[in-house]
Amino acid sequence: MRTPSYAWPCLIVSLLCAVVIVFAWQWLPGVTFPTFQGWEAQNNPTYDASLVAHVMGLVPIAAMIMVFPTSWIVRKWGPKVGTVVGMALAIVGTLISTLAVASDFMVFLVGRFVLGFGLATTVISGPTCVSIWFPHATRGRGMAIWSTWAPIGIFTINATGSQLFTLAGSDMTNLHWIILGVLAVMLVLFVVVFREPRSDEASEVSAERKGFKEVLPLFRKRQLWCLIVMFAIFNYMNYAFSQYLKSWLQLSERAGGLGWDATMAGLVGGAIVACGILAPLGGFILDKAPKHLKYLCVVAGITGLTLCCAFSFQNSLPMFALYVLFFCIGNMFLNGCCRPMVPTYLFKGGATAVALGLSFLTFGQYLGQSFTSYALDAFKHTLSQPPVDASLAFWVLVPVGAVGVVLSLMMKPSKKEAEAMKAGGGKPGGGGPGGH
Question: What is the extent of the structural domain holding 176?
Fold first, then answer.
């Protein structure tokens, strides 16, 4: 099947919806925690520094709660409505935070929680929107391009957050109003541009909304569940690197960091975290790999991220270069290949099965991320007790990554499945774990 030309505008607007939600979610690392804490302490009479971990931590917790209701929304009304609902929830959450950021810290946290609902709904509906437009031959690339939403958003807000805060008069309320306006504009653009494919444009993933009972038998796949658990591990590890990197780059050399100023740390740190932008290359490799060997793309990704742990946050530029190299390899493959594997396994169940599969995958994603914020908060207190340093603390992620490597290897198709795929030329009609 050829990719319909209108698939690309639909992909772009869906991607941009997720990107602007990242702005609303990740602006705090963009302006750094100390700046936020200092402003809140001066302007918010109810600010409680002991609750600061919740500012980031509540978002993935709420997202984790919302993943399965999202699959019901997509089942009932389709992925377009799902995206609209997600953006609307993000706008409501950001509005609550905007109105409370200078007056009531607990209400501000409620807004962050509601934002998490919008995040989950958007990032499950989005790749479902893509899957109904892109056929098997190009779905890896299409969904991998969509999967750059987080690195694009994180890099942009890290690189510009401090300047945007200054432009807003160094006022958190004004900063929130700017982000709120961007969310609203993007919602309108998505509603105008996105539509479901016509019958001559539809991919192998039918837009037909089947019942859950009809698609549940497709979930009896070892490979799918190994992918989901491994994805949780990937996000636990990756989120730790993303949140801590900019702060570590600014630590003095005596404290174990590189001693960079905030601007340099923001630019370099944002660029490193944004290496997930390489996801389309990972998706291209996935598309080109024989079907019985596609799992090796996932193996390469989690292996790279595990090696990255051993080289991370050490006060040595050569070690830092190795860390960046393996971090990039891990993100290229895992961002680019994990989501496209879901419709590969579940395409026969149409949009309903894909949305439910992505719900499980996203649940794993935010389960991993929800632990990270609190683990890092505890870790920062530990850092004040020498001789513990960042490199030692992140070494403990190596065995976690090793578990992920084992799970990725378990995604290998059985001998019977592999033979069926080879008999079909490795193409989607050739049998195997996709239910063909």
Answer: 7-430
